[in-house]
Amino acid sequence: MSYRTYQKRTTALALAAALAGSGVLMAAPAAQADVQDVNYQCKTPIGNKGAVSPIDIKGVKSGSGYKITMSFQKGVSSSPVELGKGAMKPSAVIKLGGAESGSLPVSGPPNAEAVPANTPIKISDLSGTYTPAKSGKVTFTAGVLTIKALGTTTTCTPANSPKPSLTLDVKSAGGGGTSGGSSGGSQGTPSGGELPQTGPEDSAIALGTLGGTVLLAGAAGVLWLTRRNQAAR
């Protein structure tokens, strides 16, 4: 075998190792998020109202838990009178499914701008902290929305049995299994904050390390083969 042919083969081996590492990184599991249309039927002090809003739920790893944010892409319900700045306070519950059951309370800041009379009320992003009690895939589905304004309370309930807006593959702090069962009650504490990006960071970091190991192993093989060939010559 000529030295030039040998060089081509060793280069091909190095590229194959690099591609293998890249493939591992690309295969890193990510949270599955799907915007779902939710048909909210609202009971207001002046009667029943309804509106459909696409709901987006995102999650990001935060310490031993996840920061969950629920976003409304369209307004829901309305008020017969103008709601001044800061007059409306929204909150909601997100239903948990899959490896866990129960609900997660989320809340957001009051309206930053006045809401004109008889116009859809734009709900601010609602956030809460979710701490897994079990390991496995957990789904997050829009639940009841509550709007408090001017001393009144409006309750909006999803009427179309929406599908989950988010699925996370989580691991509990205690390393619990994926066996079924109710987690019992609330799984988090509401908190305000900006909309986070989705992504289980721990899994991505672990798989990135594995991809790097594959790449280094390929490079080490190339060096060994090169030195062996030079010694033989």
Automatic annotation (TrEMBL):
<feature type="domain" description="Gram-positive cocci surface proteins LPxTG">
    <location>
        <begin position="191"/>
        <end position="228"/>
    </location>
</feature>
<feature type="transmembrane region" description="Helical">
    <location>
        <begin position="204"/>
        <end position="225"/>
    </location>
</feature>
<keyword id="KW-0732">Signal</keyword>
<feature type="region of interest" description="Disordered">
    <location>
        <begin position="157"/>
        <end position="204"/>
    </location>
</feature>
<keyword id="KW-0572">Peptidoglycan-anchor</keyword>
<keyword id="KW-0134">Cell wall</keyword>
<feature type="signal peptide">
    <location>
        <begin position="1"/>
        <end position="27"/>
    </location>
</feature>
<dbReference type="InterPro" id="IPR006311">
    <property type="entry name" value="TAT_signal"/>
</dbReference>
<dbReference type="Pfam" id="PF00746">
    <property type="entry name" value="Gram_pos_anchor"/>
</dbReference>
<keyword id="KW-1133">Transmembrane helix</keyword>
<protein>
    <submittedName>
        <fullName>LPXTG cell wall anchor domain-containing protein</fullName>
    </submittedName>
</protein>
<keyword id="KW-0964">Secreted</keyword>
<dbReference type="InterPro" id="IPR019931">
    <property type="entry name" value="LPXTG_anchor"/>
</dbReference>
<keyword id="KW-0812">Transmembrane</keyword>
<feature type="compositionally biased region" description="Gly residues">
    <location>
        <begin position="173"/>
        <end position="191"/>
    </location>
</feature>
<keyword id="KW-0472">Membrane</keyword>
